[in-house]
Amino acid sequence: MTTASKINLLGLPLDKMQAFFTTLGEKPFRATQVLKWIHQRGVHDFTEMTDISKKLQARLAEVSEIVLPEVTWQKDSQDGTRKWVMKMPGGSAVETVFIPEDDRGTLCVSSQIGCALDCSFCSTGKQGFNRDLSAAEIIAQVWLAVRSFEGKDEVRQRRVTNVVLMGMGEPLMNFEPVMDAISLMMEDNAYGISKRRVTISTSGVVPEIRKLKARTDAALALSLHAPNDQLRDQLVPVNRKWPIAEVLDACNDYMAGLGDKRVLTVEYTLLSEVNDELEHAHQLAELLRDTPCKINLIPFNPFPNSGYSRPSNNRIHRFRDILQQAGYVTTVRKTRGDDIDAACGQLVGQVVDLTRRSERFIELVESGGTAAARAHLRGEQ
Ligand code: SAH
Ligand code: SF4
Known about the structure:
Elements: E1 7-8, H1 14-23, H2 29-40, H3 54-63, E2 64-65, E3 70-76, E4 82-87, E5 93-100, E6 105-108, E7 112-114, H4 123-126, E8 129-132, H5 135-148, E9 162-165, H6 175-186, E10 198-202, H7 206-212, E11 219-223, H8 229-235, H9 244-258, E12 264-270, H10 278-287, E13 293-299, H11 313-325, E14 329-332, H12 358-377
Helix pairs in contact: 1-2, 5-6, 7-9, 10-11
The structure holds S-adenosyl-L-homocysteine and iron/sulfur cluster.
């Protein structure tokens, strides 16, 4: 997405943009000007930046660029959901989904091409892992979505008010680019989305959850999916490294540090006759007793050869009722966009798998932690 010698300004948050202008011998206020041009006015040609001198425009074009991925496919679902497939350099593609609701519009953004964590019920995981997205490639999804609704009557009701990092990939396995991208989402000179409306969703990478509070105050969602370690070990293999108690402790610590009334979102994908029994609901209610949270139940979205099925509505409702009776705010996520394969866990892009995923990942985290695992995933031994 970037020419080797030029820096792609699309992915620079305010502090890095200011540092960039300082190295050019320019005043830091140039950073806010350029951020506004790129992210608020959608300009990617320096010559259109009219409050910047011709001389500086030319200098910027010499050392930098504003490059966006190519949208290769876009489709609207009958329920108003819109999905884009964006082609990234290297040939793989990622998916982004916009979900309009009465009072908001949620954009579901990808953070990696594929995912190495190989949760047993997730089609992204089944595709394997190719590579991390850069900050530019992550924020480009927001840029393109915002632009795609501009200049039309639909612009008002189709605004991107919320962003969730619930597309392809595990955001906390791509920490720095994700931090830069969410900083741009929340930046007043860029998208200005409130910290309550930008959500990082994680399957539980504990050391990275612990790093979060020094870097952001975005909302956090934990993909729990099981009320005990024995079952979670099977569904979410990363649990073998960081079991439930450690994950909940790390999440509670982050949420407590926010100093406001926000609570953790616990996501629980319901798999028929696997994790949706009455005893699982009771165990979950017990498990979360000391975790201020709201629970979001996601009925499984099927994909070919998954080996799982979606529970009946009766089973979903009895599971929800138990949690509600135990005092938890519990919602069942409406399935959206499934006619265009845009529902949770159906995002697959086109991923060239470069790993053997979870077995190797688990071996690596056991031997040397995430840094070693990540180096390996990047192809370094
Ligand atoms: N890697 C992150 C974010 C991406 S997955 C995470 O795991 O949290 C976003 C959510 O979709 C997660 O809660 C995930 O467990 C859920 N999900 C994955 N596959 C699914 C499927 N087939 N049906 C329903 N939900 C699924
Ligand atoms: Fe990766 Fe999340 Fe899918 Fe698990 S559920 S494989 S962590 S994207």
